[in-house]
Q: What sequence folds into this?
């Protein structure tokens, strides 16, 4: 590619990053995270990502090589590389467990009714019944069902009906309250989505699936109608994939094939909806 061509690509990429950063910076400002904090974080990301890329190229990740890729001075690179990454906070581990529990509730026969919908589970069970306690213990015996139930009630994930049964409010783990729980999925979902887009920009042979439908010049009523259609279709698709993935995971774990035991392969399929009926300041500027 010519120098002029490289400059055009760079300008287009930086413009796309500028768009990408707008909603992120809006969130950071709202939560009191200032530019110097973000700048320091980006510096760390640059160094660690460059370090990984140099290793993937089969070379020793020296300070000089990382400096060439990042433009960050060697003293700062050394300081960042010496930092120890902390483990996920307990709230993230609890949130991950919660997502797994909801997945089982939606996909496992014993926790679904004849129509395939999640059962209303008894809050207190006896020896002859299956309730919320059994759901929790089917995934982990390290967490007390009552403590989890109290947490889910506070977050609005479940409600107790007039028959003292635990009812799932949503068909996915999306708390109505609780910023820590929401930010867990914010980070995981957006990371994988951007990673997919980056892969498709860098790789030309095997692109990963990434599509969207977008229209303008619509009335609020039309947007609402389309949103309802999209949400219903997406929920149905996610439920089908969840059931199939849970079944295949059980098969892989039980398989005698050593290549499928303890493997680390994963996937994420996501859906989102955006419209500017309540936020016209950003999309119209594009």
A:
């Amino acid at each position: 590619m010519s120098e002029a061509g490289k400059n055009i690509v760079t300008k287009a990429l930086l413009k796309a990053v500028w768009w990408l950063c707008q909603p992120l910076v809006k969130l950071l400002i709202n939560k009191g995270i200032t530019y110097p904090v973000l700048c320091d974080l980006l510096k760390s990301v640059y160094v660690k990502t460059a370090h990984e890329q140099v290793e993937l190229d089969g070379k020793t990740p020296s300070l000089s090589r990382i400096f060439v890729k990042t433009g960050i001075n060697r003293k700062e690179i050394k300081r960042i590389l010496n930092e120890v990454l902390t483990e996920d906070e307990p709230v993230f581990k609890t949130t991950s467990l919660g997502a797994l529990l909801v997945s089982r509730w939606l996909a496992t026969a014993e926790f679904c009714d004849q129509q395939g919908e999640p059962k209303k589970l008894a809050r207190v069970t006896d020896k002859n019944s299956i309730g919320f306690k059994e759901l929790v213990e089917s995934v982990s015996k390290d967490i007390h069902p009552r403590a989890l139930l109290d947490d889910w009630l506070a977050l609005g994930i479940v409600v107790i009906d007039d028959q003292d049964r635990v009812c799932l409010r949503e068909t996915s783990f999306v708390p109505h309250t609780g910023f820590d729980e929401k930010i867990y999925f914010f980070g995981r979902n957006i990371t994988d989505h951007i990673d997919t887009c980056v892969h498709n920009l860098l790789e030309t042979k095997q692109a990963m699936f990434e599509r969207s439908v977008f229209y303008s010049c619509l009335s609020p009523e039309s947007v609402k109608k389309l949103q309802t259609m999209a949400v219903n279709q997406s929920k149905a698709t996610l439920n089908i994939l969840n059931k199939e993935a849970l079944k295949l995971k059980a098969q892989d774990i039980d398989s005698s094939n050593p290549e499928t035991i303890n493997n680390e392969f994963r996937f994420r399929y996501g859906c989102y909806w955006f419209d500017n009926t309540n936020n016209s300041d950003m999309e119209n500027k594009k």
